[in-house]
Structure formats: C-alpha cells, structure tokens
C-alpha cells in the first residue's frame, strides 16, 4: 500500500473522469511529454495510451520512482530528483507538453522557475497543471481584484492562461482539505520585452510590499518621484498597487531597467 507523504505534498489524483479530461486537453501522439509528480502512475498510464514520442517523469519520492521504473520499464524515463533542481528545458531537443499535479507546498516556486527560464524561445508547447484553488485564483487574477498580485503579473507576462475546472477533494487520495484547480498555459505570440525577469520580480515585490498603501511610497523608492515616468505611463499615485494592470507593471520594469543601463 502506498502511503502519501505530507512532507512532499502528496495527494494522488484518482478521479478517472478528471484524469481523462487532462489527457484530452491537447494532442499527445508523437509528442515529447514530461510529467511532474506522477506518484502512483494514474495519469502516466493514460498518457502512455496516447502514444507519446518520448516520455520523462520527475518523481522525488524514492519508492514511487522505483515502482514507476519497474511498472513501466522502458516506456518512460524516470528522473528520481527534486523538480526544482532540474533544468527541464535541457531534457528534450524539441518543445514538450508538461503535465503536473504539483506539490502544493512548492507549486508557485515551480511555476515561477519555469517562467524565469523562458528566454526568447519557449521550451514547451503547453503546461497542464494542477494547483490549490486559492493559488490558481491568484495566477489568473486581473487588476482591481483582491487576488491580484505579483504571481498574477509574472504568470501573465509570457503566457496565456485558461482555467479548465475546479476539482473537489474527493478526487484525490488522501483527500486534501481544499479544492484544486486545473489550468492550461500556452505561450504568448508577443510579450512585453523585459531584459531580466528578476527586475520584474523586484519591481512587483516592492510595489506589493505596500499592497494597501497608495503608490507614492514604492514609486519613490524605485524612481525617486520621477515625474516624467508618471506622465509617460499616466500613473495616479493615489491608486494602490492592485489598481495597475499587467502592462503598466511591465512598462515600469522597462523604465527601471532603463534607469540602470
């Protein structure tokens, strides 16, 4: 019997209807596929039926990794490692499809890592990922909403995001105490050119550190009250950080980079 480890955030998806929904979201046949946290292999088995060209799975749990290697033999390539230590973009020679029932305790860290790894070319065709619902709500949030913040701005920078559905605790074993959400991420044809993604992280971190305050303090901290930038971007310092849309934060990051170039 497989015992889920709380330390690894393990909740195995067992709902056959949801599992089939996931594998039907995109064409898999002849494509290279990566699955994060395959666990007991419930989704793995269905993906294999779709005849992928090449199939890697990343499983940190030693016993589960061994079991997957035995059960699927040469049908999949098992990487027994922490996903945060893997450079996924180097595993394949072509764009891939990524599936993941992400561990809730590191899901935002994984997503942020992947977004930061995107340069001019995307290393994936799409990401099909499961998150804790409240995290998913933050990812897809728009400006002027309470869920809107740094994660929303970073996630929507280079990616189109579509919410597929919410998933109840009864679809998992063991049952988590919260709902989950399934999101589909695809590359944007055009995205705002920022030289270094770490600058976007810094700008949004400083602004949202004062989430409930007006924009004057973080703006002055970053731009020393530069009126030209305010006029150019048409920013009202009486607003709050959640009132500025995605594009304004990308433009603010561009201005920040220009000041330091």
Structure description:
This protein has 261 residues and is an alpha/beta fold. It folds into two domains: 6-187, Rossmann fold (3-Layer(aba) Sandwich); 197-259, Helicase, Ruva Protein, domain 3. Helices cover 37% and strands 19% of the residues. It has ten helices and nine strands. Helix 4 (107-117) crosses helix 6, helix 6 (150-158) packs across helix 10 and helix 7 crosses helix 10 (246-259). The protein is elongated and about 65 Å long. Residues 4-9 have low confidence and may be disordered.
Radius of gyration: 20 Å
Beta fraction:
15-25%
Number of strands: 9
Instruction: Kindly report the CATH topology of the largest domain.
Output: Rossmann fold
The spatial strand order of the largest sheet comes to 4-3-2-5-6-9-7
* Domain tally: 2
CATH superfamily of the largest domain: Vaccinia Virus protein VP39
| Number of helical regions | 10
CATH class of the largest domain equals Alpha Beta
Q: What are the segments in which pLDDT stays under 50 over at least 5 consecutive residues? A: 4-9
Order of helices and strands: EHEHEHEEHEHHEEEHHHH
The general outline is: elongated
Name the structural class.
Answer: alpha/beta
Q: Measure the end-to-end span.
A: 58 Å
Mean pLDDT: 93
Helical content, roughly? 25-40%
Just name the CATH architecture of the largest domain: 3-Layer(aba) Sandwich
Q: Report the major sheet.
A: 7 strands, mixed
